Design the sequence.
């Protein structure tokens, strides 16, 4: 985006945020948040596994499918559906 157009955009965005009393979240921020949630889920799953919880119980805790939990517990590569994050 040309620099002058970017200045206008950011100014308009600032007015919009103040008017709506909400901050605009960029695509990069949304992706970063989802990645953070994914890492958190993986941490919960791995810690639960260490504590001896079954895949069924971990699935109830995380809201993920038991099959996905089992794959993660077996260190298989899994794509967690974005709508679950």
Sequence:
């Amino acid at each position: 985006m040309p620099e002058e157009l970017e200045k206008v955009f950011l100014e308009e965005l600032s007015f919009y945020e103040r008017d709506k009393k909400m901050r605009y979240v960029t695509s990069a921020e949304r992706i970063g948040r989802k990645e953070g949630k994914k890492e958190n889920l993986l941490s919960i799953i791995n810690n639960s596994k260490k504590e001896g919880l079954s895949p069924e119980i971990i699935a109830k805790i995380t809201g993920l499918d038991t099959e996905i939990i089992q794959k993660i517990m077996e260190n298989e590569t899994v794509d967690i559906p974005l709508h679950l994050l």
Remarks:
- The chain has four helices and no strands.
- Residues 26-84 form one domain.
